[in-house]
Design a protein that fits this description.
Layout: E1 4-5, E2 11-12, E3 16-18, H1 26-36, E4 40-42, H2 52-64, E5 73-78, H3 96-110, E6 118-121, H4 132-147, E7 153-156, H5 160-169, E8 176-180, H6 189-198, E9 201-205, H7 212-216, H8 218-227, H9 231-241, E10 245-248, H10 253-261, H11 270-280
Parallel strand pairs: 3-4, 3-10, 4-5, 5-6, 6-7, 7-8, 8-9, 9-10
Antiparallel strand pairs: 1-2
Helix pairs in contact: 1-2, 3-4, 5-6, 8-9
Bound molecules: NADP nicotinamide-adenine-dinucleotide phosphate.
NADP nicotinamide-adenine-dinucleotide phosphate binds near residues 122, 207, 247 and 258.
């Protein structure tokens, strides 16, 4: 596989382990994921879906076993009040710059680190356009990037027009985008095209859960049989070959190994890739 390098020259591992919905199993699963070979971890400072502090517990356990901070890629997110319940990791009545500061500082504490590899805006405030609140949050995130306390900044759950506007007007355009990726939307083609043109790394999630029809498709099953893999692995390999960086949230040790195996164990032909793209179309 080609190395994945951001436009500001930071390398990202080719597969990310996602920690959403793991609840009290978070620490055990993060440790297992790293022991299984994952070196990139995605979380968020948002207690509705993530247990960031338990990711930190796993990092402490891994450090005890000799894991160096620099060998892991840690990505977390700022989630605005609309994506939080009453357990905001910041003073919800404070201005947005303060909210980002408090959330960022608490993420560093949770993760027992003095820098992040990637800090992501969990989503713009609305599905349409970017408003002043988005710009205030982005400016606060840019400051952390400029100060070197995060190696990159990014945005999630973003529409193509919003990404375009951000790239045009921001002082620092995002290095990464993280979106749910539906085959029926051409695997998020509009957003991926902007990413490609701007040199932004596209991270895809819900690749399996959002694309059950593709997994069941006879063409995918045939390809899987031929390359000696299962259909899920074929999807992960396909997205890698079209230039995406996938996330997986598996809770199973064998599945962790199976997911990582797609990086090395087989390759799809151009014809296979086109076939899978056309199922999506
Ligand atoms: N930015 C956002 O708003 C946002 C939203 C959602 C997710 N995310 C991120 O993306 C991460 C991944 O989420 P996701 O939605 O893609 O994953 P997910 O919902 O956790 O889905 C993974 C599913 O695929 C199954 N799976 C994975 N590998 C498998 C294999 N080799 N064989 C069989 N089943 C397999 C898992 O089952 P098993 O557990 O049985 O393996 C699980 O049911 C999250 O943890 C989070 O970090 C971000």
């Amino acid at each position: 596989m080609n190395r994945i390098v951001t436009y500001n020259d930071v390398e990202i591992p080719p597969f990310i382990y996602g920690t959403a919905w793991k609840e009290d199993q978070t620490a055990r699963l993060v440790e297992l994921a790293v022991d299984s070979g994952f070196t990139a971890i995605d979380t968020a400072n948002q207690l509705i879906h993530y247990q960031e502090a338990l990711v930190g517990d796993a990092l402490l356990a891994l450090a005890k076993k000799g894991m160096k901070r620099e060998s892991l890629f840690l990505q977390t997110k700022f989630t605005s009040t609309s994506g939080q319940d009453h357990r905001t990791p910041y003073d919800a009545s404070a201005d947005l710059t303060t909210q980002v500061k408090q959330s960022f500082d608490s993420s560093l504490k949770h993760l027992h680190t003095d820098y992040l590899d990637s800090y992501v805006l969990h989503g713009p405030h609305s599905r349409w356009g970017l408003n002043q609140a988005d710009w205030d949050v982005w400016a606060a995130m840019e400051e952390y990037y400029q100060a070197g306390t995060t190696k990159m900044i990014g945005i999630s759950n973003v529409q193509a027009d919003q990404l375009k506007e951000l790239c045009e007007k921001a002082a620092v355009k995002p290095m990464v985008v993280q979106n749910r990726c539906y085959a029926v939307m051409g695997w998020d083609k509009d957003v991926r095209e902007i990413c490609k043109a701007q040199g932004i790394i596209y991270q895809g999630f819900s690749l399996l859960t959002a694309n059950q029809d593709v997994l069941r498709d006879p063409a995918v099953r045939d390809i899987a049989k031929r390359v000696g893999a299962n259909p899920l692995q074929v999807i992960f390999r396909f997205v890698l070959q079209i230039g995406m960086l996938p996330l997986t949230g598996t809770t199973n040790e064998q599945h962790m190994k199976d997911d990582l195996a797609v990086l090395t164990q087989f390759e799809l032909s151009t014809d296979d890739v086109q076939k899978i793209e056309s199922i999506a179309g």
